[in-house]
């Protein structure tokens, strides 16, 4: 009887929480604040979706863990994602201290029962990007961690050692598309206070997180210091070497573009930006790496003048 009651509470809470997140987190506003997660209302009472101090939320009365949380850390404190992905391309989440702690037991039970969880990924202090549903698909006690699937397709992939090369590439692609790219986008846009660094346009749906060094390159890491918040016009202009950004943060427009006569977008949106400086994030650690800017600016100059 106790088990059936716990199972019923478990399924009701998960369904209610994920329904609320789908309504709350839209493409225009996909992030959620810590106070919202702590103040979630379930059947007339406050039922936090995250633990106030721990990374794993396993509520009393529920059979398995409900959610996991990754705390925001700056680029300076930790290289992004270095220890989060296994050789099979699947994400890993570490146990909290003692493997016998009730939260870690809750993760194991989430695996055994194949129940969906929510993963709240920190993109700024007390602000999270939610991923749901996710599943625990393996427990690796020797490494004090679990393997996490971001979608239903990843749930059926082989774990370390048995995955084929095709499966590994597929898992890596899903991990990049479903976690790394969205986290990078939101962290960069938050750092630039939801505004284009060139023109200050503030419409989130028209903003991109542009890489200074493209992510296909070894040095193209998904770090805020390798990113710029750009509106879609200026992102395309930057990628096409119509606009360059110097290491001193000054904007340079290609000479032939400056000589063109077109409409008001070219005149006011691009030509008049020449010589202006980009707007920098408040936090020094979030500002674009000048070494990376210099490397990218060299490509701009080489492409334009050769």
From TrEMBL:
InterPro entries from the UniProt entry: HNH_nuc
Domain (HNH nuclease): residue spans on this chain: 196-245
Gene Ontology MF terms in the entry: endonuclease activity
Keyword Hydrolase: yes
UniProt KW keywords: Endonuclease, Hydrolase, Nuclease
Name the UniProt record assigns to this protein: HNH endonuclease
